[in-house]
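Quick one - inputs below.
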Amino acid sequence: MTRYRATIAYDGTGYHGFQRQAPEHEPTIQGEIERALTQIGQSGVTVLGSGRTDAGVHASGQVIAFSAEWRHSRQDLQRALNATLPADIAVLDLDEAACDFHPRYDAVSREYVYTIYNAPVRHPLYRLNALHIADPLDVKAMDAAAAGLVGEHDFAAFGLPTAGDVTVRRMLKAECRADLPSPKGDLRLVRLELEANGFLYRMVRSIVGTLLLVGRGEMTLDQFRAVMESRDRSRAGAPVPPQGLCLTCVNY
Amino acid sequence: MTRYRATIAYDGTGYHGFQRQAPEHEPTIQGEIERALTQIGQSGVTVLGSGRTDAGVHASGQVIAFSAEWRHSRQDLQRALNATLPADIAVLDLDEAACDFHPRYDAVSREYVYTIYNAPVRHPLYRLNALHIADPLDVKAMDAAAAGLVGEHDFAAFGLPTAGDVTVRRMLKAECRADLPSPKGDLRLVRLELEANGFLYRMVRSIVGTLLLVGRGEMTLDQFRAVMESRDRSRAGAPVPPQGLCLTCVNY
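Output:
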């Protein structure tokens, strides 16, 4: 048996998240990869991910691991998987790994990007990978609020732990910036980049929902900080929808 | 009756092009907009476009015109249309226009962008809006070849006229550049931007197909120029697929 580690990308639009569900009627990323492995002669293989992504969330840098008996090269394994997987999932790279490599427990940090399409009218070409917000957003205020997330904090106000009860995480990066301003200045993409040693359930989406209150002028920087320090989920903004979220990188 | 002019955007993935087909069973952009107008009480209205886009081609700046009896504000008309149109079509702006405004005949130039995802492995998040090319591309050579298209030329080698038999067009801009190089340098988006006073049928896609021969080192700059000057379609590269193409702007 050889342990393999792979970076995968997927369009989460058509999937009920990364993790295979108990009732297997809902398509999942894990389920599709295990099915592709079966189709290339590797049945009964369990695929581990660096973390679950929710239904509709995308990835350009999810890391997975699995053990398999494969007699050909790793390049052939990657090609066989990409030829078998549906068009909305791909293996970007694949390497042999230490036999005890675990993509979740060995991860040092994870990076997510949440994209907002900020313009008066919804845009068809951004509907599957960005949240449309028509109200003008104060991106500088959002960036200043996000900066307060950096460091070790109890993030209980923004989510529930996926395992255990510890809600303290170390945020390594939290930046909000506007991209691609149109010549007219009436449309733009606002991107929030977060890197942390771990994320609570729905944490990125709750943070974005709360930052949107700041961006709309409905919450001050002090109030944003107070929400974080309160550890009270009822004080945070509502979690934003999944289609703007992308897991971009896992660091080891 | 008031004449309206609107800029529309659409994800062409699910449509058989802009123009309403004679047998109306295939969904088209024009058909969807006319249906939305009917639903808001404007039945029998014909929508004109600045030009046809083929099946699967996108637009972020298609211009349309129609005449209607609308008793409310133009803002209300835009809102009503966007509330009625499917998520993959939107009216970005809408204004009153001169009663004889024609989006096709009055256009001075049109701008298209063709996007190539250039990386060893296909990427799920670019599959609907870019062509995947695994071979490394010499983008500088492609840009140099594209520069030779600028000016007034007979483009018969790259397409058929949509009406009449004149195949001379004036190319105002033709630039090819690589965007978003990854830190590893192994993936990038290559964008070809073209602006002309008019385009022949499949002209952009035939030009891109021929530029790819240059980018792969299979055709020299002199040979590319000779293809254009030959007026012989059999010497051009095969037209590339539609999903990388987007009509970005129409100028008046």
